């Protein structure tokens, strides 16, 4: 059973998402919160696998709440936003979020997103996630070397570069002519060496360190 928290200051939005998820077999809503401060309190009292988190809320915003919850619990944060390219979304990803969804996402995609994130994967789809990271990270003139990046093998750097493009394990396996199980092993080693919790955080490290740049081919580097 996947336990989900729903955090949004708009009652209709919050209860609407909760109703959709509660009606799905294998998913139950662990709590609902109207602001970030309440979300932190409830996340620490009620175990949740995934928390849907609005960004702009009174009392305490979703960025601060995400940072606190990811540092003190095992819950994964899925950001809810109205705009697909929003600097606040990137700030939430930097704070530890595992991906984001637009608030007008169809119910079946919402359910799928929760299942993906609960399964330990990061939600890099839709492709606007990559565009957002390129917009707010790779466009910066300041590069920040990621700790552990120099420990990656050449193959692991190739895998990370493709992850940064939003490619799935199956797509990476096809590109590099590897088995999908082998790709999963490489991904796990990349996350371990970079000391990040999921693929989104690895992607941020890839762009911030300059390993991947906008418009650059993920394997040739040109």
TrEMBL record:
InterPro entries: CheY-like_superfamily, NreC/VraR/RcsB-like_REC, Sig_transdc_resp-reg_C-effctor, Sig_transdc_resp-reg_receiver, Tscrpt_reg_LuxR_C, WalR-like. Coiled coil: none annotated. Residues 145-210 form the HTH luxR-type domain. One of its GO terms (biological process) is phosphorelay signal transduction system. Keywords: DNA-binding, Phosphoprotein, Transcription, Transcription regulation. Residues 3-118 form the Response regulatory domain. The modification 4-aspartylphosphate is found at residue 54. One of its GO terms (molecular function) is DNA binding. This is LuxR family two component transcriptional regulator. It comes from Ilumatobacter fluminis.
């Amino acid at each position: 059973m996947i336990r989900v928290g729903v955090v949004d200051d708009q009652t209709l939005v919050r209860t609407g998402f909760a109703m959709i998820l509660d009606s799905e077999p294998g998913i139950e809503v662990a709590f609902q919160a109207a602001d970030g401060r309440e979300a932190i309190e409830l996340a620490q009292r009620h175990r949740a696998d995934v928390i849907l988190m609005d960004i702009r809320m009174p009392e305490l915003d979703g960025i601060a709440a995400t940072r606190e919850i990811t540092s003190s619990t095992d819950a994964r944060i899925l950001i809810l936003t109205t705009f697909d390219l929003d600097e606040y979304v990137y700030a939430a990803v930097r704070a530890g979020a595992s991906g984001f969804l637009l608030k007008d996402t169809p119910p079946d995609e919402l359910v799928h997103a929760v299942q993906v994130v609960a399964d330990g994967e990061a939600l890099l789809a839709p492709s606007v996630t990559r565009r957002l990271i390129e917009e707010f990270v790779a466009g910066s003139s300041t590069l920040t070397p990621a700790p552990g990046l120099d420990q990656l093998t050449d193959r692991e750097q190739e895998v990370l570069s493709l992850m940064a493009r939003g490619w799935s394990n199956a797509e990476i396996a096809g590109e590099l002519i590897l088995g999908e199980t082998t790709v999963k092993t490489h991904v796990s080693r990349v996350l371990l060496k970079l000391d990040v919790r999921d693929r989104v955080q690895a992607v941020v490290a890839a762009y911030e360190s300059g390993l991947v740049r906008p418009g650059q081919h993920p394997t040739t580097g040109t």
